[in-house]
Amino acid sequence: MQPPYHRLEEFVPLTGSDEGLVRRFAASSRKIHRGHAIRREGDHVGGIFFLMEGWVASSMMLREGRRQIVKVHLPGDMLGMPSLSLSRAGETLEALTDVVVSVIPCPALGRMFIENPRLAVGLFLSTQKERVALMQSLSWIGAASALERLAAFLLDLHSRLNAAGLTRADGFDLPLTQQHLADLLGITPVHVNRTLKRLDQAGYVQRSRGRIVIADLAGLRAVAANAPPRFADHEAWTRLGSPSGNHIPDPRAG
Amino acid sequence: MQPPYHRLEEFVPLTGSDEGLVRRFAASSRKIHRGHAIRREGDHVGGIFFLMEGWVASSMMLREGRRQIVKVHLPGDMLGMPSLSLSRAGETLEALTDVVVSVIPCPALGRMFIENPRLAVGLFLSTQKERVALMQSLSWIGAASALERLAAFLLDLHSRLNAAGLTRADGFDLPLTQQHLADLLGITPVHVNRTLKRLDQAGYVQRSRGRIVIADLAGLRAVAANAPPRFADHEAWTRLGSPSGNHIPDPRAG
DNA sequence: CGCGTCTTTGAGTCGCTTCAATGTCTGTGG
DNA sequence: CCACAGACATTGAAGCGACTCAAAGACGCG
């Protein structure tokens, strides 16, 4: 199966040699079973992870029991990057399904900044996009009701799954328990259940054993009532002066 | 006055020529008066800003009226970076006091990735640190009470002001209205007031016309009950293989 | 079939919101 | 020097959304 590179080239065009570089990391891939941790808060930071298959939740613990899921990662995402700025990992990466990740060690990252500025810029912009996503989450959780948050999450998930080519018939399998959703949305599991029920009974979604079907996309958007940000794609890269990197010509120029 | 470079060299040692580069941007500085916007949601993204003096709030609008303040910036911070990944600015940058910012245009950023990988790595790690801060905020707002959030914010502010050398006698001027605090913490202005009153009457802080004094640091920490993350400083840089950039020797090696 | 995990539902409570009014400060002009 | 306006802070009372506690139902797995 073709590894999910759509996130890598969303801001920067990939050359053949770029792909070769990335493919080398894919060789060092690790499998982790559902429910297990890829890395825990406080663990040593040896690198970052590229998610090849499966879903991952990255979360932070608060006092006793309370935890906040910060992001649900899909195939193609880079995991554990924020912890690069910490002396010990600040987030727990939990496999929500069986997953395959490839490891990118720290020194390889450092080398990339010198040898391949193009990819470095891509990674940099990708991180900024993640920051925007975090700011969005913060806004929802800070200023929206439980119904709005849940609707917004389902919509976000749906669009990201589409981008990765992982939806079938406007529906998708949701491998999160209601406890997970609660930790993600900042509400209790009980209230997740009631809120899901409301969305279901109002005809916006249909649920059947872990599978979600968006029955009324426009209606759901009206509930969430937030315009998703428009990303810049390669436009951002050209805005930065298209730093081509190690003298490889821009493949888009020809 | 010495420009606040402490955030620039927190992860990467600055060489003399680095400082020269940065100082050139300082020349193109702009003054903005309190209450005015540096950049609005939807504006053209021409670059990023380096905050020389004053406080800035970056916020996102939700539906009519509701807004979420995502971060309060202090001197030394870089502003508006997330919007690099968007075709139009996704955040509003509002001056909370009279401020001075210098502009770093997009092409200059792109050039830096080629000509000065060292600074690029520093900026990259700095962005990861901001991401961790965002994840922290998300956790507080999602899983903590109003009292805990407020305590955590005041503590965070206090420690960042200390790092910038901007506190006097364990106190600081807080140029935020209670409306600002409300938009930041995700509660109503009315409840901000009641919560501040509780912190005051319990002896944790003292308030007097916009000035905050931390009266009981340990007590306030116990209320917030969150361990701040330990950042990696130059450790992260060495972990990445210390990419020195354009053949300038590592000043820390000698 | 039986066990554990997850989901669903009900009833009572609490934190925060909403609405509304009063109090306080600051700057401005007469 | 005082009167006034506007913005901000403070306080009260009532209501609602989400929480807590608790129990029963459904599913998946050995």
UniProtKB/TrEMBL annotation, chains A, B:
Organism for this UniProt entry: Sphingobium lignivorans
Any Pfam family: cNMP_binding
SMART domains: cNMP, HTH_CRP
Name of the protein in question: CRP-like cAMP-binding protein
Xref: CDD domains: CAP_ED (cd00038), HTH_CRP (cd00092)
Domain HTH crp-type per the UniProt entry, residue ranges: 144-218
Keyword list, A-Z: DNA-binding, Transcription, Transcription regulation
InterPro entries, A to Z: cNMP-bd_dom, cNMP-bd_dom_sf, Env_Response_Regulators, HTH_CRP, RmlC-like_jellyroll, WH-like_DNA-bd_sf, WH_DNA-bd_sf
Organism placement in taxonomy: Bacteria, Pseudomonadati, Pseudomonadota, Alphaproteobacteria, Sphingomonadales
Gene3D superfamilies registered for this protein in UniProt: Jelly Rolls (2.60.120.10), Winged helix-like DNA-binding domain superfamily/Winged helix DNA-binding domain (1.10.10.10)
